[in-house]
Design brief:
Order of helices and strands of chain A: EEEHEEEHHHEHEHE
Oligomer: heterodimer
Helix content of chain A: 25-40%
CATH architecture of chain A: 3-Layer(aba) Sandwich
Largest interface: A-B, 41 and 38 residues
Shape of chain B: globular
Order of helices and strands of chain B: HHHHHHHHH
CATH class of chain A: Alpha Beta
CATH topology of chain A: Rossmann fold
Structural class of chain A: alpha/beta
Number of domains of chain A: 1
Structural class of chain B: mainly alpha
Largest sheet of chain B: none
Chain lengths: 209, 244
């Protein structure tokens, strides 16, 4: 039994930049408890596909929808259900990790006290570094904080673009546990070329350059 | 603080007004904290205003400007020129900085569009309040501006600043993704700000000459009405700019 009854439907989706088409006629359906791995060479559109799912970009053709409780939502409408981790997800460098998380909790209308923020920072391996500004963080620590940002609102859909990039072995272990937990809570979509991460997918979408 | 379900949400809901206001305050506090730490906008704005006041002071000393209706209009015009260009220097930073540091995506996914507009508007208003105060004091000291009615003068500066904040916030959002941001900001802001600036200059000149609020009441009403119209229109249109 899964925490949320959610379905992701992608119908005939195409995307590109200018005259160059990255992919077209992509169609699939995912339900809670399922994981999709998007794979393909550099420039094949893996990150773009995840941005479409997150509602950060519109497809050139086709439709993407999330359905829960019998109601369908566009990706933009479904933003409160979505957690997104990607190399181009940037948080505020002039704020501390704790200030970043408190800010994003507030704008999402969530109540997260200091203990909840600490627990989240501990979960991603940043316990004790919450009061440091991001400007002083290594790239691996920033990647860990991206997970805290994405998990803050306990999303039903988790979109992970290159999930272990810049992470050490311990960080990769955190990602493993996050993916396992998310499969119990909803949907996971992973864009990767790492053979170790391909095994997470119940479904694999292969994009060609 | 408004609370959504602590369990994974069953479906996305339209944010309540209270949630939007709490989120707007969070955006304002975040931007203010960042601004106080980096002073990206404030330093540029205050430097511009101070340089302008000093240059105007030197120029008017050479001219030997005597107190007359024309002189008051010139002083009011120069004050608003300093305020306008200092504001244009700094007020686009809110959105442009989000774009340059690539934090827009994180904000777009998390915050209701109306909260983002309100938060940025509040920050611009706060920056303009500081700028208006500093510029006015500099003009009074360096340009030897004599204020007939301090209350009317302050209200004119406040109402004019409200217009500037309402108009520049939406324009900053529009140009955040464009090339040549600063130039485009000035070009787009100018036509939108000409009508209120004319009234603000006239009203400020009157407030320098007369004691009492009555002579500037009409100008104040126009500026407040213009601000409200611009603010409401911007709030309605912002979602389309934000999600484009």
């Amino acid at each position: 039994m899964h925490a949320v009854d959610i379905r992701l439907t992608v119908e005939g989706v195409a995307a590109g930049y200018g005259a160059r088409t990255l992919f077209s006629a992509v169609a699939l359906e995912l339900r809670a408890g399922e994981a999709l791995v998007v794979s393909g060479p550099n420039g094949s559109g893996k990150s773009t596909f995840l941005r479409l799912l997150a509602g950060l970009q519109r497809p050139e053709a086709g439709q993407i929808s999330y359905a829960t409780g019998g109601v369908a939502y566009t990706p933009r409408e479904a933003a409160p259900l979505i957690g997104w981790v990607a190399p181009d997800l940037m948080l505020y460098r002039d704020l501390t990790a704790r200030e970043n998380l408190r800010f994003f909790a507030a704008v999402r209308g969530l109540r997260r006290d200091a203990a909840a923020i600490d627990a989240l920072l501990d979960r991603v391996g940043l316990g004790g570094r919450g009061d440091d500004r991001l400007a002083t963080y290594s790239s691996g620590m920033v990647q860990r904080l991206r997970y805290a940002y994405a998990l803050l609102h306990r999303p039903a859909v988790l979109l992970l673009d290159e999930p272990t990039v810049t992470l050490d072995e311990r960080g990769a272990g955190v990602v493993e546990s996050v993916i396992a937990a998310q499969r119990r809570a909803g949907i996971v979509v992973i864009a990767t070329n790492d053979p170790r991460e391909l095994r997470h997918g119940d479904l694999v979408l292969q994009l060609d350059a | 603080m408004s609370v959504r379900s602590e369990q994974p949400v069953a479906g996305p809901a339209v944010p309540a007004l209270r949630t939007i206001l709490v989120a707007a305050w969070a955006v304002f506090v975040k931007d203010l904290r960042t601004e106080l730490r980096t002073r990206y906008a404030l330093n540029a704005m205050v430097l511009f205003a101070a340089c302008t006041a000093v240059m105007v002071s030197i120029g008017t000393t050479f001219i030997g400007l005597r107190r007359s209706e024309e002189a008051l209009l010139i002083q009011a015009s120069l004050l608003w020129v300093a305020l306008l260009f200092a504001a244009i220097t700094g007020l686009s930073r809110g959105f442009v900085h989000e774009e340059e540091t690539r934090t827009l995506a994180a904000l777009r996914l998390a915050a209701p569009p109306a909260a983002v507009y309100l938060g940025k508007f509040l920050l611009n208003l706060a920056l303009l309040a500081v700028l208006g105060l500093i510029t006015s004091v500099l003009f009074i000291i360096l340009v030897r501006v004599q204020v007939g009615s301090p209350l009317a003068f302050l209200l004119m500066i406040a109402a004019g600043s409200l217009c500037l904040a309402a108009a520049t916030t939406i324009l900053a959002a529009i140009i955040a993704r464009a090339s040549f941001k600063s130039a485009l900001f000035a070009v787009l802001a100018f036509p939108l700000l000409v009508p209120p600036l004319i009234i603000a200059i006239q009203g400020t000149a009157v407030s320098l000459d007369n004691a009492g609020l009555d002579p500037v009441r009409g100008a104040l009403q126009f500026l407040v009405a213009y601000s409200v119209a611009t603010f409401v229109t911007s709030l309605m249109l912002f979602r389309f700019v934000w999600e484009a």
